[in-house]
Each structure stands twice: as C-alpha cells, then as structure tokens.
Amino acid sequence: MAASFSRNAMAAMAFWCFASGKKGPVKPLISISAVQQDEYQCTRCRWTAKVLRAALGEHKWGRRAGAAAQRRNTAQKVLEAADQQKVCSKRRFPKRIRIRQKRDTMRVSFVDENEPEVNGGFRYRDVTENMQVVVDGLVRHCEQMLPQLQGELLTRAYRFTEQSDEFRVSTAFTDRYFAEPS
C-alpha cells in the first residue's frame, strides 16, 4: 500500500491488503486501528497471520461440528498464552529477512532469508541495516493487531464447520484468510 495515507489521520487499516491486485480490493473483514501505515503494512499483517497460524498449529483441534466449543477454548488459550508461547513471541518471526518486490505491481513484502527465490517477476534485496528494528516492527505490529482480532478469531474457530465438513487450522486460518470475500 502506498504512502498516500495521511499519517495524522487515525489509522483504520482494513484487511484488504492481502487481496490480489488482479482481483481488486475485497470487502474488509474488520478494521484495525492504530497500526503503522506505510508500504510494508500489508506484509506486516501477513506475517501476523503466519505466526498466528503457526501458534494455532501447535495445538490439537476437534475437527467435527460437535467440537466447536473445544476449538473456541483452544483458540482462547493460544491467544492468552504468555512468554515464549504467546502468538507474537519474537521466536516465531525469522531472525533475518529479505525484501521481495513484485516487478509489475512494485508491491513489496518481507520474506524469510531462507525462503527460496521465485524466478521471474520478483527481485530481492537484503536488509543490510537495522535488521532488529525491522523484526521488532513485525512483533510490535502483531501485538497491536491480535487484541483487536480476538473476537473474530474465536468466532471463526467456533463456526468454521458451518461452512466446511471438517476443521483444520490450515484451511480455517490461512496466511491470507483476512481477505477472503464474504
């Protein structure tokens, strides 16, 4: 997202960042306030979704509709974890990242340093200075977003089997689930 947002205005960032440029923006799931708005805000949101999915994936989940309450309780437990087990723990983020830019849209994103490069259409750049500042920014963004998302996350864990036969973390909480059209 371009820096055309006013920094003085209240940040009301909606989760349409993840939508493909070819499809255009989709209706926001919810709006998130008070997040840093710059060209990296969408990639920060995506990393928040990735670490959330990783944290949720560490637990056992009931897959059928009858286990909805158990899923909601498990999600609550994950969101309330402390120290190294919390969702936004620094251990869940990569120690070193690179910047990837899509050539046709000029969209930038953070990728793990160990992620293999995609051929064609992308260029990569190492973050040579202030790596800790960038990683700390990802953690801070995650910590700002999750309290605002808690209700939606618990609802999704509880009600997912109304739309699907079986619950799986990988299908209920994809890296880009915030942008799915309703």
TrEMBL record:
One of its GO terms (molecular function) is hydrolase activity. The keyword Hydrolase applies. Keywords: Hydrolase. This is Peptidyl-tRNA hydrolase.
